[in-house]
Design a protein that fits this description.
85% of the residues lie in helices and 0% in strands. By secondary structure, the protein is mainly alpha-helical. It has 2 domains: 66 residues; 65 residues, no CATH class. Helix 4 packs antiparallel against helix 5. The longest helix has 27 residues. The protein is globular and about 40 Å long.
Length: 132
């Protein structure tokens, strides 16, 4: 039933839902590594980022963009993810520098970064020309 609902959902909605699930994957990997494996937080976050990034790539390839996964497109996806991370840090920093409350900066981040990421991934990573 969930897959049928996703099938009928617009592409951006599928992208957003995968993003929500992906956040859960990141949190679970982070918690498992810190609480069960005794890893430091920074190392655990790096590993959780990598795991959730790979999960996000495969889910978006299959569900959002309906294209077979390819290593070359994953490298682009990873680069786009790093740009999104940098954009998050930049927006947060600029908003803080301008004197806004950090939650106002976070609001700007959650509106702009997913939209920009979606467009970059759709146009650059999963464009039809590259999947042929």
């Amino acid at each position: 039933m969930l897959l049928k609902l996703l099938d009928r959902s617009p592409q951006f909605v599928r992208f957003g839902l995968i993003g929500v699930v992906n956040t859960g994957v990141h949190a679970l990997v982070l918690a498992a590594l810190v609480e069960l494996a005794g890893c430091g937080v920074v190392l655990a976050n790096a590993a959780a980022f990598m795991m959730s990034n790979i999960f996000s790539y495969f889910m978006n390839a299959a569900i959002t963009f309906r294209t077979p996964p390819r290593f070359a497109s994953y490298l682009k996806f990873f680069a786009a993810s790093l740009v999104a991370l940098g954009s998050t840090m930049l927006i947060s920093g600029v908003m803080a520098h301008l004197g806004f409350h950090y939650l106002q900066g976070f609001l700007v981040v959650i509106v702009l970064v997913p939209a920009i990421s979606y467009l970059a991934i759709k146009i650059w990573v999963f464009s039809g020309k590259q999947q042929a």
